[in-house]
Structures are given as C-alpha cells and as structure tokens.
Design goal:
The structure is a single chain. The chain is mostly beta strands. It has 8 helices and 33 strands. The protein has an 18-stranded mixed sheet that branches. Strand 4 and strand 5 form a beta hairpin. The chain starts with a strand and ends with a strand.
C-alpha cells in the first residue's frame, strides 16, 4: 500500500457515513450459518485490491470474471455516484491495419476487458461510458485497473494491446494495433477520437478512488484474522488506527459463500480524528461494502462508498460475449490462466560462457574481445526500411564510422555518416578533438540515424553535403550554407527521433532489451530463441532472436518487435519494430547490419 495517505479526515464532506443495505446479486446470512454453495474459509485479507491472483474457494482457485458495484464519491465539488460493470475473458476479434484504408488481417483469439460505467449522479457525464480493450495476453499489469471504476488503463498500455474500442456521449473510438500479434510492418488502424475514452470520467472520481485504495487503513487489516471478534490498534507513519472486528455470517455471490466481518475503524493524529467502516470477505480483493472519509496527507478529504452487487467466478478464463460496434465472438482459453507470478522462464538451451559484448548497447569506445582477440569497431553499414502512418515505406543505406584526419593543422577524428536514399546521397561529417571521441563511439556514432551524431557535444566542426546543398558550423558558431541541408524529409526526421537518445530505440527499446533480457531463458515480456549464423566482417557469428513487447519513450508509447543479437558484438544485428500510441498513428522500422569493419587493437 502507498504511504502518506490517511484513513479519514476530521469531518466527512457528507457529515457522517450512513448505513446501507446490500442488494442485487449478493445474498447474506447472519450468525455464521452458510446460505448454501461452496464456501471460502479464508480468514485473512492478504491481497486487497488485487485482481490478478485467484481467490480461494473450498481449497480451489477461482478468478473473478464479472463484477458489478456502485461507487459514490463526495468532495468539496459535490457528490457523484456511478454503477460499474467489469467483465474479462477471451474473445475472437478481427485485427485491422491502415493501408490507405481498412485492411483486415484476420481473426485472433484475444483476452478482453469490458467495462460499462454509468453515472447515477454526475452532472458532467453524458451517459454511459462503454469500452472494450483486447490484449494478446493477460498480465499482472493489465489486470491493475480491473476492480476500479475507471477504464482498464493497465490493459490499454500493456505492451500487447491489440484493440481499444469505446463509446461515450454519442462519440466512438476504435484502434487496432497489428504489431501486438507480430505484424510489425502493418500500421495501426484508427476510427474516431481517442478522447472518447480519456475524457469521460471526472478527475475528482479518479483522485477520490486513489486516495481511498492507498489509505493505510487497509494495511492495518492485511494478514489480521477477521474470523474472530477483536479490537486492536495499528500504527503507521505516526498515526494510530483502532479497529473493531465483528464476524457477521456469510455473503454469497455466484453460488459461492464467503465469510464476512464488519470492520469499524477510527484514527487520530493529534486532535484530528476520523472513522469509517467496511463489510469485508477476506477471500475477496474488494470490500463487499465500505464507506468512510479518506484524506491524503496535505490534500483534500474525500468521502467514498462502495457496494458490491454481483460477482462471478471461474476456475479459468473462458469465452465471453461482449462487444460495442465491431463484432466479436466468445474466444477460447489458452490454458495459461493458472499462473500467479510472472511469465515462466524457459531455457533456450543456449551454451554457457556466452560473450557479454552485446550488453554494451552500442558502446564500441573500447576494444571488444572476439575469439580471444581484441578488435576495434571502425565502420558499420545498415540497410533500413521505415514507414509512418499516412506515409510511404522508404528504404535507405547508412554507413557510419570514424578515422583520424587533420583539419586546419589540428589532429582530429572525423566521424562520418553516408546516407543513400531515393537515388540521392547525403554525407554528414563531424570533426572532434581526440579527447572527445569516446562521447560518440560510446553510442551515437553506431546507431542507424544521423540526428544525434550531428547534434552531439564538443565538436570542432560539422559539415553536411547533399545533392544540391551544403551546410557547416564550427566550434565558434560560424554558420555557412543551408541549415535544412540533410533533413531529407519530415518522415526521415521522425525516423531519426525514433532512435534518438534518450527517448527512442537507442535509449529505450534496445536499451530495454539490454536491461531485462538474458539469452538463456525467456522472461516477462520477452522470449528468446536461437537464430541462424550470420557471416559479416570476415567472421561468422551465432545469433539469438529476442521477441519483446513493452512501453517505451517514458511509458507513453507501445513497442513491439524483434531484436537479433550476436553475443560478441556491441550492437544488434537486426531490429524490426513498431512503435505506436493509441489514436496517434505509428511508425515501423527495420534496420539490418549488412557490413562491419573491425581493426585489430594494438
């Protein structure tokens, strides 16, 4: 639980919390007598607000597949209340690409998060928000918002998001991402306005919910036996919490009974006091009922109330019948729903003693050891293809390297890049003092782009020559020629920024591979398999292909792709990837190392 959040304010915005009766799909039984069906004997609330792990009923694991509740929030802005319906399971749905129109890539079995949030009392909401988010595979992160009265943002930015669909206030949004199913060269298809999904729920509801769930009130209940009457105290960050636990029979959802207890709490810090109450079934990750005032340290107080009306359970996630406008049908379980941790790691049978040079991540500033001999990287050549939403696919060849030269009587290093694109040739030359060479050979010199090279630090002179243009700038700031020389096109500039440090593939996507991947086993968000041997630079290298997904560029963009590495080399043999943001288009890149010049280190 997050710290710094209090369990109540001096006064609730509503004055006091009030009694409420349970309704809907739940039935209750007082005095400890079961109302029939399977019963959970769980006595401690170990995973509050956790939708990823299964609940235990009769010694067996079940997942919450359906949830319906009402949620009320009160603040200085007034009272708002909502009916929340959440459902998850498998569907079969079509994936579409943007290919100068809507291109059908076929039907796929995907994991679905469906939600419908209906305002019962909210003057700012224009009717119900209905949404459907489809992902390639369910993860702990994608489940993070399933219990909340908001869209499933964890699934929407999961790294494997395939479809986002939403309807609200007469507006509609649809986004389909082919990269999530390995179709990296196919760009996302979009209909409508993404604000359909993002702008529906008022910020007050978000803030009030987060203050409630992050309260230390729940921390004091975790791992405490709620099956017995008790009164006890708990201290957290200088605050004292007092609890009274009163077992109160059972509650039944979906034919399954759960022991429940009434819990009352109060807290005090100095002369400030607060209180609240909840009806908790320890086996369930969300209170059956709860209300009270919750405050964030130094922030506003919120009164919140939640009342669960119905839940449904299943031993594994099956097909569900949900949809908005695009047609879906019930899908099939993949048989992987019983896992409760991160993705199982699986050996790829890679030999022991692999070189760690690949972990250098573009850093060839020092010699590298290959088969017991030391070499310096002097030049690389990449074949590159890229494509942006709404644009054409482009191909170019880029050669980059360095050598010693003299410039106006000074001993310098020339760092160069030559780009051949659309029948034209561009040359980029950067002259640096020997003491600053490592600032370039440690990364930016070798990536298959030019932006970071010509915008690097501590240069003596930069020169760019194109088919009909020339530009130069020296260390004194003297400029000659056309400053736009070498830009080539707007799309080429966007391609450059995809690689740019620190927001792109150089600092993000390939860097993520370095951070999280080993070549000997699969892991969370990636798989590894042995690739084909590659002959380059007069040598033959074994390779490994890493297929990955995740969030890049500061968590704002979804990346999917494959990186091929040779363990002995400090940069990838190949990167094929798609980078996209829902409703914002996408970019596809494919860079393949085709030539390499090594020099024995003296």
């Amino acid at each position: 639980m997050a710290s710094g959040c209090l369990g109540g304010g001096n006064e609730s915005p509503s004055g006091t919390y009030s009694e409420s009766s349970q309704s809907g799909g739940a039935t209750t039984s007082a005095g400890g007598t079961s109302s029939g069906g399977e019963e959970s004997g769980t006595a401690t609330w170990q995973t509050p607000w956790d939708a990823y792990n299964p609940v235990q009923i009769g010694g067996e694991s079940y997942y919450i597949t359906y949830l319906k509740y009402t949620f009320t929030i009160k603040s200085s802005e007034g009272e708002r209340s909502y009916e929340v319906i959440k459902q998850r399971g498998y569907v079969k749905a079509h994936i579409y690409a943007d290919d100068n129109g809507k291109k059908d890539l076929g039907e796929y079995n995907l994991f679905a998060y469906y939600g419908k949030i209906t305002p019962l009392n909210d003057p700012d909401m224009k009717g119900s928000l209905e949404y459907l988010i489809l992902i390639k595979e369910r993860t702990k992160d994608s489940d993070a918002y399933f219990l909340t009265p908001f869209p499933d943002f964890g699934a929407m930015m999961s790294g494997t998001t395939a479809v986002i669909e939403a309807s609200y206030g007469g507006n509609y949004f649809y986004w389909s991402n082919p990269a999530s199913i390995g179709k990296y060269s196919e760009l996302p298809y979009t209909e409508g306005d993404p604000n359909t999904l993002m702008g529906a729920i008022p910020g007050t509801a978000f803030q009030g919910w987060m203050v409630m769930v992050s309260s230390a009130v729940w921390t004091g209940l975790e791992d405490h036996d709620l099956s017995k009457p008790d009164e006890y105290s708990f201290s957290f960050m200088g605050m004292g919490y007092s609890y009274k636990v009163s077992p109160d029979g059972t509650v039944t959802f979906d034919g399954k009974s759960f022991m429940v207890s009434n819990v009352e709490w109060s807290w005090a810090i100095g002369n400030v006091r607060g209180q609240g109450k909840a009806r908790i079934a320890p086996a369930l990750p969300v209170p059956v009922e709860s209300e009270g005032t919750f405050s964030q340290m130094g922030g506003e107080s919120y009164y919140s109330k939640i009342s669960v009306e119905d839940m449904k359970f299943s031993k594994e996630f099956g097909g569900i019948n949900v949809g908005i406008e695009h047609t879906t049908s019930p899908g099939e379980s993949t048989g992987t729903d019983t896992q409760t941790g991160t993705q199982t790691e699986t050996s790829t049978q890679a030999p022991s003693g692999l070189s760690d040079n690949w972990k250098l991540g573009w850093d060839a500033s020092k010699s590298i050891s290959i088969n017991g001999k030391e070499y310096l990287v002097k030049e690389v050549t990449f074949n590159v293809d890229y494509k942006l939403s709404g644009g054409e696919e482009k191909h170019f060849v880029i050669t980059k390297g360095y050598r010693e030269e003299e410039l106006n009587g000074r001993s310098v290093y020339l760092l160069y890049a030559k780009v051949e694109i659309s029948g034209e040739s561009y040359e980029y030359r950067v002259y640096v003092e020997p003491g600053y060479l490592d600032e370039y050979t440690s990364g930016t010199l070798w990536i298959p782009s030019v932006y970071d090279l010509i915008n690097g630090p501590d240069f003596v002179k930069v020169e760019i020559t194109g088919p009909s243009c020339h530009y130069s700038i020296d260390e004194e700031g003297n400029i000659e020629g056309d400053m736009s020389c070498g830009m080539i096109s707007e799309d080429f500039q966007k391609y450059n920024m995809v690689w740019s440090y620190p927001t792109g593939f150089y600092g993000g996507i390939y860097g993520d591979v370095l951070t999280y991947v080993t070549l000997t086993e699969n892991g969370n968000g990636y798989t590894v398999e042995a690739g084909d041997p590659v002959a380059i630079g007069g040598m033959t290298f074994d390779t490994y292909k890493v297929t990955w997904n995740g969030l890049v560029q500061g968590g704002f963009a979804q990346g999917n792709g494959e990186t091929v590495v040779a363990p002995e080399l400090p940069f990838p043999m190949e990167v094929e990837a798609s980078l996209t943001m829902p409703g914002m288009g996408g970019i596809y890149v494919h860079a393949r190392l085709v030539d390499l010049k090594l020099e024995p280190a003296s």
